[in-house]
Specification:
This protein is an alpha+beta fold. The protein contains 3 helices and 7 strands, in the order E-E-H-E-E-H-E-H-E-E. The strands form 2 sheets. The chain has a 5-stranded mixed beta sheet, with helices on one face. It is globular and about 50 Å long. Bound molecules: coenzyme A. The site of coenzyme A has 20 residues, from strand 4, helix 2 and helix 3.
């Protein structure tokens, strides 16, 4: 990826002095994922976002957020989660994820981590899936 893209936030497009929000789709989300990885390139080990739909509409599946071992517990995971939440609010889409210990994290602490951002366990599911429901927001 070339450096010039690192400074651009694909969230917004400036046309004739007006800020336009790009409609979310697979490509726009992929661009946003690349933007975050570039912005936090010394902090993120892996970040995977998928554009998905279900019977309630579109949502972002946060497949994986992994901070570099040397950078953990310094607030970077929280900063990136906050950005994602803001992005979901702007696009009025949900974020879904699956809490797992397969990457070495403690599941109880992970629940606490995601709950801080307003994520809740999906009702009637007992398999560790959590959902964030967007708050109405303005550009
Ligand atoms: C979970 C993770 C993304 C948090 O990022 P971070 O930059 O370390 O987190 P921050 O410094 O912003 O915030 C600290 C919080 O992260 C969570 N956290 C940190 N290390 C953790 C661990 N080993 N297990 C579970 N949660 C952890 C806790 O909620 C912690 O708050 P607490 O100390 O009050 O319990 C990071 O620990 C990570 O990359 N883990 C490995 C990959 C992984 O398990 N990803 C999630 C899969 S669902």
């Amino acid at each position: 990826m070339s450096d010039w893209r690192g400074s651009l936030n694909p969230l917004r497009v400036f046309i004739s002095g007006r800020i336009l929000l790009m409609k979310l789709n697979e490509i726009v989300l992929k661009e946003y994922g690349s933007y975050l990885k570039m912005k936090y390139k010394n902090k993120i080990q892996e970040l995977k976002l998928e554009y998905c739909t279900d019977e309630h509409g579109e949502y972002i599946y946060l497949v994986l957020i992994k901070i570099k071992p040397s950078q953990k517990n310094k607030g970077y995971g929280s900063t990136i989660m906050s950005e994602l939440i803001q992005y979901a609010d702007l696009h009025n889409v949900r974020i879904k994820l699956w809490v797992t210990n397969i990457y070495g994290s403690d599941v109880k602490r992970l629940y606490g981590f995601y709950q801080k951002f307003g994520m809740v366990l999906i009702k009637n599911f007992n398999d560790g899936h959590m959902m964030y429901y967007p708050q109405k927001t303005k550009l």
